[in-house]
Amino acid sequence: RGTAAMKLVIQRVAHASVEADGVLSGRIGRGLALLLGIEQGDSLEQADWLANKVVKLRLWPDLKDPSKQWATSVADGGYELLVV
User: Fold this and answer.
1) What pLDDT score was predicted for residue 1?
2) What's CA 40's distance to the chain center, in Å?
3) Tens-place pLDDT, residues 48-71
4) pTM here?
5) Which residues contact 33 (CB under 8 A, 6 or more apart)?
6) Cα–Cα distance between 52 and 72 in angstroms, integer?
7) Three-state SS for 6?
8) CA distances from 44 to 17, 33, 55, 84 (A)
9) 83 to each of 4, 28, 63, how far by Cα in Å?
10) Cα–Cα nearest to 9, from 40, 54, 41, 61
11) What DSSP state is assigned to residue 71?
12) Which of 8, 10, 12, 78 is nearest to 49 (CA)?
């Protein structure tokens, strides 16, 4: 068996929420909805690396110059994250 690797699906959202058994578990405004897949053998180091990568992804236009696409990250823009 090869090296374990976390999987992540990322979606930019205007808002998102998660319910479990009809109870609201989480809700965000503008940001990223993340579907995270982990398995036995995945490490805390992998999780840290992935988290740092996600907050630095430039997925929005520049805050001062909207003509510059893909210039602002989650951290830069103060966007929210919802991890499921």
Assistant:
1) 47
2) 21
3) 999 999 999 999 999 889 899 999
4) 0.85
5) 10, 11, 13, 16, 82, 84
6) 15
7) coil
8) 26, 21, 17, 17
9) 20, 10, 24
10) 54
11) -
12) 8
Pull the structure tokens for residue 56. 């630095």
- Mean pLDDT score of the chain: 92
Q: Hey, what are 70's tokens? A: 């893909």
68 is written with which tokens? 């510059």
- Residue 60 pairs in a beta bridge with 72
At 40, which amino acid appears?
Answer: Q
Nearest to 77 by CA among 27, 34, 30, 35: 30
Report how far residue 18's alpha carbon sits from residue 23's, in angstroms, rounded to the nearest whole number.
Answer: 8
